[in-house]
Amino acid sequence: MAHAPIEPPPYFDALLERLAEGDPEATAALGRHVHWGYWSDPDAIPCTGADYAVAAEELCRRVCDAAPVRDGMRVLDVGCGFGGTIASLNERFQNLDMTGVNIDPRQLARAAEMVAPINGNRTAWVEADACALPFADDQFDVVLAVECVFHFPSRATFLAEASRVLKPGGRLALSDFVPSAEGLDALRKHDIGGSETRDSYGAVNILCGEPEYRALAQSVGFIVPAIEDITPHTLPTYKFIRNMAARWQATGADAYVRTTRRLEVSSRVGWLRYMIFNATRS
10 Å Cβ neighbour count for 45? Predict the structure, then answer.
């Protein structure tokens, strides 16, 4: 079924502007990875962009290792952003054939500029819709999607596409925001993901619970998936992101700060969980 064209999240406009201006904090924190971080100490207080970058790299590695990625594989990174996941794999592995997909040519241009293949690896950058991947069946050993699936118009369609392009026995690994059973009603009631969220984070669907996720994956040919809750280790993200956005004083920054605070509260009370999901195509 056709869906409306996907637009890049609004926060990328402000972020790309800061990067173009050479903002040192934005460049250090979000110049490579544009997603939440993982801290072994949930009480950590990230003070600098460099602190945040280390945590974001750790989260990326945990998703990749859930697949797991190995030397010589063919890897598709959907929603690749600035190429941070592919950059990380490029440094860690050899003889990978890596393709990054994104709907935003600006992000792809930065990725191509930032990532120079080493270790016998190969990279390609493709402007495409995650729900209509321009690849033949059975092409990839691993499909990755780090913190982007909630932007897609349909998880069911994306999961079907990921299954289609994976080889039999291939692995899907992703991270996503997943509501708890009690959180579903609360998130709807408080309009988390509503109009203010769309104005700052873009189109967001955070109302797909774990049972639905499992059912969707199994319906398109994945063996029963594993889901790991890492919410406590992501919580330091919120304060850093809110403080950085507040300092930017960009259009919409106030709404972004308010929305981020609401997401934080939802995560701390257990309504919303940050999960790493991995599954094998049958």
Answer: 10
Spatial CA neighbour of 158 closest among 132, 126, 128, 193: 132
Q: What is the pTM assigned to this prediction?
A: 0.95
Q: pLDDT (tens digit, 0 to 9) for every residue of the chain, 282 residues total?
A: 455 556 788 889 889 999 999 999 999 999 999 999 999 998 888 779 999 999 999 999 999 999 999 999 999 999 999 999 999 999 999 999 999 999 999 999 999 999 999 999 999 999 999 999 999 999 999 999 999 999 999 999 999 999 999 999 999 999 999 999 999 999 988 887 777 777 778 889 999 999 999 999 999 999 978 999 999 999 999 999 988 888 876 666 788 888 899 999 999 999 999 999 999 999
Catalogue the E-assigned strands of the chain.
74-78, 97-102, 122-127, 140-146, 166-179, 226-229, 272-280
| Those residues with Cβ within 8 angstroms of residue 173's Cβ, 6 or more apart along the chain or in another chain | 63, 64, 66, 67, 142, 143, 144, 145, 276, 277, 278
The DSSP output letter for 5 is: P
Residue 100, beta-bridge partner list: 77, 125
CB 145 within 8 A of CB 139: no
Q: Which domains does the chain have, with CATH numbers?
A: 11-273 (3.40.50.150)
> In 50-139, which ranges are E strands?
74-78, 97-102, 122-127
Burial of 201 (0-12, 13-18, 19+ CB in 10 A): buried
What are the distances in angstroms from CA 176 to CA 42, 49, 254? 19, 23, 24
Helix (H, G, I), strand (E, B) or coil at 195: helix
Residue pointed to by tokens 């990839």: 140
